[in-house]
Amino acid sequence: MRFDLGMFTDGVSLPGLSEKVMYQTCFNNLQYPDKKPANAFQFPAKHLGGYKSQDAKAKREFGMTLDHLDTLLQKQKYLCCLFYCQLTVDSASPDRINNKLGHIDGNILVSCIKCMSLKGFRYKKLLEFNSDRLVYSIDNEEKDIYAKMKANIAGGPSIIFNRYAKRNARKIRGGKLCKKSIGYDANAQYLWALGNEMPCGRLTTIEAYDGIV
User: Fold this and answer.
1) Whether 79 contacts 35, CB under 8 Å
2) Which among 27, 119, 125, 124 is positioned nearest to 80, based on CA atoms?
3) pLDDT by residue (tens digit) across 163-200?
């Protein structure tokens, strides 16, 4: 097959298979960065003081050693851990893996100052452009919507485990008759939904008017 798909090895649904096709298509003719090793050097000891001060100011533990940094540089072939730029004495900078922890051995990768700044800039812009969306869709102001949606939930495990629910026929929750069916478990609909615009922004209530349905 063209995409080497296998229903039993790659996924049991059309979305699972389509995901593999998508990634194969995206990565065709992808230009990978040059990973040619850079010239060897030792991490400068004079730079440790700055990172120690950062951790002390933020009340984090500091436990980064020069031996560990030199070992990381050798393993990374003196390349940036983010975008494989060639590192130098002036550009090499420890990058914490878990930002909640301090500069300690085992929580460090070595990147270049330029890429670290780009990483921070990208995260800053991500929050800036999406700050209006990083809120709860349904908050206390719209609690009546939450109540209506919660009251309208039907099907539950019946749809998940049986993949079929028929109103006034399927029994759920200890024999309770399912009077509403609002879920459709059809794989093709997932793909169709991905190709359409999705609602976003703040949830608002529109009063009923003639012709709304």
Assistant:
1) yes
2) 119
3) 556 678 777 777 888 787 665 555 555 666 667 776 66
Residue with tokens 């100011």: 57
In 123-145, which positions are buried (b, 16+ CB within 10 angstroms) versus exposed (e)?
eeeeeeeeeeeeeeeeeeeeeee
Q: Where are the beta strands (DSSP E) in 47-190?
A: 92-96, 108-112, 171-172, 176-177
Q: Per the structure block, which two tokens stand in for 138? A: 């349904």
Whole-model pTM?
0.46
CB neighbour list of residue 19: distance below 8 Å, 6 or more residues apart: 11
Phi, psi of 31 (to 5 degrees): -90, 110
Rg (the chain; Cα; Å): 27
